[in-house]
Amino acid sequence: QVQLEESGGGLVQAGGSLRLSCAASGRSFSSYVMGWFRQAPGKEREFVAAITGSISNTFYADSVKGRFTISRDNTKNTVYLQMSVLKPEDTAVYYCAADRDLALIATMRPTVWGQGTQVTVSS
User: Fold this and answer.
1) Distance between CA atoms of 103 and 93, rounded to whole angstroms?
2) How far apart are CA 11 and CA 18, in angstroms?
3) Is-contact 46 37, C-beta < 8 A?
4) Is 31 helix (H, G, I), strand (E, B) or coil?
5) CA 36-40-44 angle, 5° bins
6) What is the per-residue pLDDT across 57-87, written as a single tens digit (0 to 9) for each?
7) Distance (Å, whole) CA 97 – CA 99
8) pLDDT of residue 19
9) Which stretches does DSSP call E strand in the chain?
10) pLDDT of residue 56
11) What is the DSSP letter of 102?
């Protein structure tokens, strides 16, 4: 129903900024909860941020609060993750995901996943 494609990953110095984008195709994008997750080598995938569809309420992991901002533009079918004050521990593959149910995003069980984009923060 919805297909996702991430972009914007790359190499950045510690303290720098990067903006990830996730473009969606399909029906009723505005009704989906969108989330960002990440997975570092040898570690479990973890929740980063989420944004609801209609009112755009946002949620963040404690590790990124104050540094990352999730937003969406429903006219462009795109969700963004603005990352600032990046740290080496932010290095991971970042995935966007979508589901109509916030609970499935919160429990890392979204219906649709993107392919991921690599973010590497050097120190």
Assistant:
1) 23
2) 9
3) yes
4) helix
5) 80
6) 999 999 999 999 999 999 999 999 999 999 9
7) 7
8) 98
9) 2-7, 10-13, 18-26, 33-39, 46-51, 58-60, 68-73, 78-83, 92-99, 112-113, 117-122
10) 86
11) H
Amino acid at 114: G
CA dist., res. 56 & res. 71, Å (int): 8
Token digits of residue 65: 């609060």
Tell which residue, 122, 48, 118, 119, has the closest CA to residue 79: 48
Token representation of residue 40: 């570092």
Strand pairing partners for 51? 34, 58
Give the model's pLDDT for residue 32: 94
pLDDT lower than 50: segments of the chain: none
Determine whether 14 is exposed, middle or buried from the number of CB atoms within 10 Å of its CB (0-12, 13-18, 19+). middle
Q: Which DSSP letter does residue 68 get?
A: E
